[in-house]
Amino acid sequence: MKSFLLLSVGLGVLGLSACSSIENPPPNPIPSTRSYVAQLAGTWNTNFTLDTAFTDRIQLSEIQTTEKDPNDFYIWGANKAGYLALGWYDPKTSEYVITVNTKELTQFYEFSSIAADGRVSGNTWFSSERGYSDDYAFTGQRTLGTASVNAPRARAEAAQLFEKLKASRR
Question: How far apart are CA 93 and CA 61, in angstroms?
Fold first, then answer.
């Protein structure tokens, strides 16, 4: 994108200068995570095995930005039991993260890409006051859908939880 600067005196033009934002980018540009986070919108069906097989359904639909960084986005919703769920993209690790926060623990799902048909595979693990669990393989499938949550309460809770979980990730 080029912009032009005209300098004039009276009615005559003294000079024309072309400035390019490509040649002079802003220092340390921070990319937005919004386009990555938007890929997390929908209903996620997840499967993993500890001693037995477990499944969950997570619905994510509302994208928010953080107060600290307007380029840092997350999405929130709920799982099938009604617990608050969050999703975000971490550009430092190039991973998508979905969490479900219950009263006793937080479950993390981490994966590096989303296939064209919405399938993912990665690791899931748990965090509680006692520490972190081992990693377990999981698979998931995203379909379209919307979340049904108490928006005003959940929005404030999601913002607080996002800051806490992002900072405490192992």
Answer: 23
